[in-house]
Amino acid sequence: MIVTDEQSIMLGNYVAYLDFLNQKLLKFFDSQKPYIFCKQGCARCCKNAQFPYSAIEFRYLLNGALQLDKCTQKKIEINIKNIFDKKKKYSGKKFLYDCPFLIDDCCSVYNYRGVICRTFGLMTNTENQKIKAPFCAFQGLNYSNVLNLRKKTISVRKFKKLQTDLEPLGFNISYKYLTGEDYEEAFNLKFGESKPLIEWFE
Ligand code: SF4
Ligand code: SF4
Fold first, then answer.
1. What is the mean pLDDT of residues 8-18?
2. Which whole number is the average pLDDT over 55-62?
3. In terms of Cα–Cα distance, which of 113, 145, 124, 94 is closest to 43?
4. Tens digit of pLDDT for each residue in 82-115?
5. Confidence (pTM)
6. Packed helices 5-31 and 55-66: angle between N→C axes, nearest 10 degrees
């Protein structure tokens, strides 16, 4: 693949954007410690989903994959092939799959992972001024200790029981917002077309 000067400047700007995003998310996760149950080996958020990736995210992810050892690269190739085999037989509207970069329940391209992957686990502010809990709240993980899962609201009773000063909060971390015009302008970059990760391999 030939990389033009313009593409390499853009990737540099994307790395600066990721640094900024990481710092921001680090603070968010820190402020939500009582509600976060993420730990190494818990890879549920890397399974059974679509994983939207824009062109620039995908290019950066590939840079990471190219640096992996041959054995890991082979495993990823096999995963991709298996996903395509499954996809061929699928006739529904929304094809879900386990991320091909997930190897033994660990992300093989962690430092190169996309925007959506970095936000897994936090609560998101939605456009209609509601808060969306991560899916794993409904599996006894993040925020399950403070949410009323039936009503999908914060439970005052549970919050009181935790005796913490750290409020459970939603953040402006929707994929659409974090890869939108404001960030493109601020970091002088273009995210480009966005589609499910697996479709970039078609
Ligand atoms: S790139 Fe890594 S973090 Fe993102 S879904 Fe795949 S395995 Fe998970
Ligand atoms: S976000 Fe949820 S599913 Fe993902 S690692 Fe954290 S606890 Fe596990």
1. 94
2. 97
3. 113
4. 999 999 999 999 999 999 999 999 999 999 999 9
5. 0.94
6. 90
* CA–CA separation, 60 and 16 (whole Å): 12
Q: Which ligand is nearest to the CA of 46?
A: 1
- Say if CB 3 and CB 62 are below 8 A apart: no
* pLDDT class of 9 with cuts at 50, 70, 90: confident
Ligand 1 test: best mutation among 38, 46, 76, most atoms within 8 Å of CB?
A: 46
Q: What is the per-residue DSSP string for 70-139?
A: HHHHHHHHHHHHHHHHHHHH--SSS--B--TTEETTEETTGGG--HHHHHTTSEEE-TTS-EE--GGGGG
Residue with the smallest CA separation from ligand 2 atom 6 is: 38
| The two three-digit tokens of residue 1, written as one number | 């693949």
Task: Please state, in angstroms and rounded to a whole number, the distance separating the CA atoms of residues 17 and 122.
Answer: 19
CA of 131 to the centre of ligand 2 (A): 18
**Token output for 194:** 């966005």
Residue ranges per domain, the chain?
Answer: 5-201
